[in-house]
Design brief:
The complex is a heterodimer of chains A (116) and B (115).
Chain A (H helix, E strand, L loop, with lengths): L3 E4 L2 E4 L5 E7 L5 E7 L5 E9 L2 E4 L6 E3 L9 E3 L8 E8 L10 E3 L3 E5 L1
Parallel strand pairs in A: 2-11
Antiparallel strand pairs in A: 1-3, 3-8, 4-5, 4-9, 5-6, 7-8, 9-10, 9-11
Chain B lengths: L3 E4 L2 E5 L4 E7 L5 E7 L5 E7 L5 E4 L2 E5 L5 E6 L8 E8 L11 E2 L3 E6 L1
Parallel strand pairs in B: 2-11
Antiparallel strand pairs in B: 1-3, 3-8, 4-5, 4-9, 6-7, 7-8, 9-10, 9-11
């Protein structure tokens, strides 16, 4: 199984450019998430989705947008890239049934983004 | 102050030694995840704890959640170079189902194991 797949792995953007980070999962997971990880810091939640057509903001949503048109895909859009968005981005997914059902959260391998 | 604090921030041990990493929360933990990350790679799921007093083990790694559900520890027995990496704890701080996955992470513990 592929699990959670992110593309691209590395990208350099110029200030003001736009791009989309792709995330797809093949585990039929209902919940999906985008996190960012800055050097020496833990991960912070950008956006999340509990199902197709449903998205919501996390802790640090400014400068980003998401959509969830299918169960499998959860792309993250950067509209006007800024140096503060230089970070490592992780997509994650979870098959949530109920609070006692194990709830393992799977992460992708990350996307390294540099804005110059 | 941080909602979730890990200690120590870094740890250097000799191969074969035991070690413990702590994760302390300022709020009740409804779930606590432990992940391992190698530099430049993604997060590898280790264990997830939910119940006060719960303990889980996998190979030489044991994680515990205290009775009050505000602290977790990760213990590695007889460490090996393969254990080296960054260990992250992630907390579920609300009871609702949609809270799962919306993790608050600690800043990570960098573990180095010398052969």
């Amino acid at each position: 199984n592929a699990g959670v797949t992110q593309t691209p792995k590395f990208r350099i953007l110029k200030i003001g450019q736009s791009m989309t980070l792709q995330c797809t999962q093949d585990m039929n997971h209902n919940y999906m998430y985008w996190y960012r990880q800055d050097p020496g810091m833990g991960l912070k939640l950008i956006y999340y989705s509990v199902g197709a057509g449903i998205t919501d903001k996390g802790e640090v949503p400014n400068g980003y947008n998401v959509s969830r048109s299918t169960t499998e895909d959860f792309p993250l859009r950067l509209e006007l890239a800024a140096p503060s968005q230089t970070s490592v981005y992780f997509c994650a997914s979870l098959r949530f049934l109920h609070v006692s059902s194990g709830n393992t959260i799977y992460f992708g391998e990350g996307s390294w983004l540099t804005v110059v | 102050s941080q909602e979730l604090e890990q200690s120590p921030q870094s740890l250097i041990v000799q191969e074969g030694k035991n070690l413990t990493i702590n994760c302390t929360s300022s709020k009740t933990l409804y779930g606590l995840y432990w992940y391992k990350q190698k530099y430049g790679e993604g997060l590898i799921f280790l264990m997830m704890l939910q119940k006060g007093g719960e303990e889980k083990s996998h190979e030489k790694i044991t994680a515990k959640l205290d009775e009050k559900k505000q602290q977790s520890s990760l213990h590695i027995t007889a460490s090996q170079p393969s254990h080296a990496g960054i260990y992250l704890c992630g907390a579920v701080h609300n009871a609702g189902g949609t809270s799962y996955g919306k993790l608050t992470f600690g800043q990570g513990t960098i573990l180095t194991v010398h052969p």
